[in-house]
Write a structure and sequence with these properties.
Alpha-Beta Plaits; 3 domains; 5-stranded mixed beta sheet; about 35% helix
């Protein structure tokens, strides 16, 4: 644990936080990890205190988890009719998403804290709405909508702000197995909402033989809504480390979320080192345009980074095409087999290249109730054509209008600068 920082200095180097979710994740554990890493709890509680909520107390308690020093966040609910505190028992009132959205809008919160909290709850509402076949605005949160969970999410976003975190990276998220008890009865573990949240971001995860709810919807929503990318700890100068504890001390595994805070070297258009990639190619002079188009689709489905065709002229002036596929070297055999099978070529050539993919994000926006996928990079937003075309047809709008509106909504929802 590092000394508490002063109020965030915008002139300081941009900070990155890497969350190591090796034992799962939860909203309170995320908030506690950031406070343990040095986010001033007084500043965090002052930001959370701007919410028009009462009847709760937020405290932080040093604990040990498998002998590892950590911090446990506790939201104690005060009931006028029952003077017993309920630590994270989720006894707060059920709240529809529209009420939570309005609550965050009226609170005097720092802009980025509000934006991050809104993004997290919006994602939860979309996922719950999809699962229960209802509009996101009408979704009533049970566990997630209780006062303590609202405090967890806003508190985590507040702690990110106090530490000046610009960029968030998350490890693969560990989940349990079996079933867990929820508002609607016994449900699979990991919970359906957790699985859908992971799917929305194509986020990596791993299951272990533990019947506890290791990853909660609140914790996974924070990571899938706010993480710029998923993967191992990035190269950075480490400055702070924190451990946020879950309620139980599980034998044999520290029940904590680890956060590592530091700053990365300034990004450049061509960072070092690049990623290796395999370029596979075949020349074909007897394939129709439809066959080539089908081959490109099949290559992408097989895992190619990209696939395309270029017109060429072969011997004796025969018009032909070269079909190309760019893929991870580990997938070269599988992608190459598809390339040979679909084109009928008698041979294939390959080259090892280096690629420098730029930061990107993929978000799902909703226009008139229609989901539209959008890929975002710092310099552009690429709307999924098929999604936009379907929405345009259903809403009676031009494709151009839908593309522009979807791109604007996606930029507003993304962390990509």
């Amino acid at each position: 644990m590092s000394p508490n920082p002063t109020a965030h200095d915008r002139t300081a180097p941009a900070q990155t936080a890497w969350f190591h979710c090796f034992a799962g994740t939860a909203g309170d554990m995320t908030m506690a990890a950031l406070v343990h890493a040095g986010a001033d709890p007084v500043q965090v509680m002052a930001i959370v205190g701007a919410l028009p909520l009462d009847g709760y107390a937020l405290t932080f308690e040093p604990v040990l988890r498998c002998g590892l020093a950590a911090l446990h966040a506790n939201v104690a609910m005060h009931d006028e009719h029952d003077h017993h505190d309920h630590a994270h028992a989720h006894h707060g009132p059920h709240r529809p998403y529209r009420e939570i959205r309005d609550l965050l809008n009226v609170a005097d919160l720092p802009t980025r804290v509000r934006d991050r909290a809104q993004r997290t709850f919006r994602l939860l509402a979309e996922v719950e709405g999809q699962m229960h076949a209802m509009a996101p605005d009408d979704v009533e949160f049970h566990e997630v909508g209780a006062v303590d969970a609202i405090v967890d999410i806003v508190g985590a976003c507040a702690a990110l702000e106090v530490l000046g975190i610009e960029r968030i990276v998350c490890s693969p998220i560990t989940v349990g197995q079996g079933t867990v008890h929820a508002a609607h009865g016994e449900i699979p573990n990991p919970a359906p909402a957790v699985v859908e949240l992971l799917a929305r971001r194509n986020a990596p995860s791993r299951g272990i033989a533990d019947r506890k709810e290791l990853a909660t919807p609140t914790g996974v929503a924070l990571m899938t809504a706010l993480a710029d990318e998923f993967g191992p700890m990035p190269a950075m100068l480490v400055q702070r480390i924190g451990y946020g504890a879950g309620t139980a001390d599980i034998a044999g595994r520290p029940n904590v979320v680890q956060v590592v805070v530091g700053h990365e070297e300034a990004a450049t258009p061509v960072p070092q080192p690049g990623q290796p990639a395999q370029l596979l190619e075949v020349n074909v002079d007897d394939a129709t345009g439809e066959v080539i188009a089908h081959t490109i689709t099949a290559l992408l489905l097989a895992g190619a980074h990209d696939a395309w065709a270029t017109p060429i002229v072969m011997k004796k002036g025969r018009p032909a095409h070269t079909v190309h596929a760019l893929c991870d070297p580990a997938l070269a055999a599988e992608v190459g087999a598809v390339l040979l099978h679909e084109t009928g070529s008698l041979g294939m050539r390959g080259t090892t290249l280096v690629r420098w993919p730029q930061r990107r994000d993929e978000v799902v926006v909703h226009l008139g109730g229609h989901p539209i996928r959008v890929k975002l990079a710092p310099s552009r937003a690429k709307v999924e054509h098929d999604d936009a075309a379907a929405a345009a047809k259903a809403l009676g709008l031009s494709l151009r209008e839908v593309l522009a509106e979807a791109a604007q909504l996606a930029r507003a929802a993304s962390t990509i600068d």
